[in-house]
Write a structure and sequence with these properties.
- The chain is an all-beta fold and about 400 residues long.
- About 0% of the residues lie in helices and about 50% in strands.
- The chain has one helix at about 10-15; strands spanning about 20, 25-30, 35-45, 50, 55-60, 70-75, 80-90, 105-110, 110-115, 120-125, 140-145, 155-160, 165-170, 175-180, 185-190, 195-200, 205, 215, 220, 230-235, 240-245, 250-255, 265, 270-275, 280-285, 290-295, 300, 310-315, 320-325, 330-335, 345-350, 355-360, 365-370, 375-380, 395-400.
- Strands 1, 2, 3, 4, 5, 6 and 7 form a seven-stranded mixed sheet that branches. Strands 8-9-10-11 form a four-stranded antiparallel sheet, with no helix packed on it. A four-stranded antiparallel sheet has the order 12-13-14-15, with no helix packed on it.
- The model is unreliable at about 1-15 and about 95-100 (pLDDT under 50).
């Protein structure tokens, strides 16, 4: 009855449901992306880090590199006295790199694309001459299509070469690995008890136990390297491919011919991720936000590679390569790679902001921003840019209709 007796001017603030932020408290690692939700539209403020937006029901907080406690405030836009608070405690950084295999929630394939929506369903678009887009009837599909029968998808991967029989992979939360493509019209379970997956010249999988196995011929071989936090493979013009891996101490390793004999790379440590440059060389991102070129002979410092948050590159098989880096402030920079494996100094790409992840193929590239929006650039012969057209462009365009899960 009390609220009914209040004046209309005071009714909203006196009777409104209290503001809440979810979660109210949490602990995260430095340089993490934290999602906070409010129970209504609010103004956001924080005592540290970077906020992806200043108003809405949800915000993404990028935490700083040092261990501090951050207070996030949600305020009623119409009543400055109505507030809610959340605490984000930043854990001290460890000398050992404990981050597991990089999880890909979207991926650019050779003329096609895959992306996991926020609800865990899988979408595909682009080239379909080898059934890369399950359920599609056309060879070219410029609009994302829902892949029926796959839910709770946690990671995706694609073959780096159109000649591979397996064109797409999806890992579901029940640890089943699904595959489809040249000889698989609809997704089918390929392997079980898989937690992480990467696909290039070799299909690499891990059960999350610090080791990984790989495809060679028709069988699976287990790699003897321990404490692996990430591994990738790259196609080669004169062999069956190379594998690169990182262990929990940030040491880098490379093997050739997918034979699993990984050789430690001297003069480099604190590696957090690796992407391919040429047939036998890779780009290694370090904890300090810089990058180095590595091959079996060692590591080489690079000019202009700094302040890196995420990066992705591709080997063009004999003609060099190209790639992109996303800086910690969300800018995107592009570089090319000559036949010797030497990258150019990255140059800024206009039209992209707040980018937190990247995937590059030989035909196009995809970029994810903090709000889950996906952008694309490059060749669009098969509609792989996902913007409803088949017109290629060097200006970023928005992918239609998919709000992508963050890695």
């Amino acid at each position: 009855m009390r609220c009914l007796l209040l004046s209309l001017a005071l009714l909203g603030s006196a009777c409104a449901e209290p503001l809440r932020i979810t979660p109210a408290t949490q602990q995260v690692l430095p340089n993490s992306l934290v999602i906070l939700s409010a129970n209504e539209d609010v103004l956001w403020q924080s005592s540290g880090g970077n906020l992806g937006s200043l108003r809405g029901t949800r915000v993404v907080l990028e935490t700083p590199a040092t261990g501090v406690s951050i207070t996030v405030t949600a305020q009623d836009p119409k009543d400055a006295t109505r507030k809610a608070f959340a605490t984000v405690q930043i854990q001290a950084a460890s000398t050992a790199i404990s981050t597991p295999w990089r999880t890909h929630t979207f991926v650019a394939g050779d003329g096609y694309s895959l992306a996991i929506a926020e609800d865990g369903r899988l979408w595909a678009w682009g080239r379909n001459d080898r059934k890369q887009v399950p359920g599609a009837k056309a060879i070219a599909n410029p609009v994302p299509l829902l892949v029926e029968g796959l839910t709770n998808v946690s990671a995706v991967a694609t073959a780096a070469d159109a000649n591979f029989s397996l064109m797409g992979l999806a890992l579901t939360e029940d640890r089943n690995l699904w595959a489809w493509g040249k000889d698989r019209g609809t997704p089918a379970v390929l392997e079980k008890n898989i937690k992480y997956v990467s696909y290039g010249a070799c299909l690499l999988v891990s059960a999350g136990d610090g080791t990984f196995s790989y495809t060679r011929g028709n069988g699976r071989l287990r790699n003897p390297l321990k404490n692996v936090t990430y591994a990738i493979s790259v196609g080669s013009t004169n062999s069956t491919g190379y594998i690169a891996a990182i262990d929990s101490n940030g040491n880098a390793f490379i093997s050739n011919d997918c034979d699993g004999t990984l050789k430690s790379i001297p003069a480099i440590s604190e590696v957090v991720t690796i992407t391919p440059l040429t047939d036998s060389s890779f780009l290694a991102q370090l904890q300090n936000g810089t990058a180095m070129r590595i091959d079996q002979k060692g590591a080489t410092a690079l000019a202009g590679f700094q302040d890196i948050n995420k990066m992705s590159s591709i080997n063009m098989l004999g003609t060099g390569g190209r790639g992109y880096v996303a800086t910690k402030n969300g800018e995107v920079r592009e570089f090319t790679v000559d036949k010797t494996g030497t990258p150019t100094v990255p140059r800024i790409v206009n039209g992209l902001q707040n980018i937190i992840d990247i995937s590059v193929s030989r035909t196009h590239a995809l970029f994810l921003d903090r709000d889950g929006r996906l952008f694309s650039i490059g060749d669009n012969t098969y509609g792989q840019l996902g913007n409803g057209s088949k017109q290629s462009t060097e200006t970023p365009v928005s992918v239609i209709g998919v709000k992508v899960a963050r890695p």
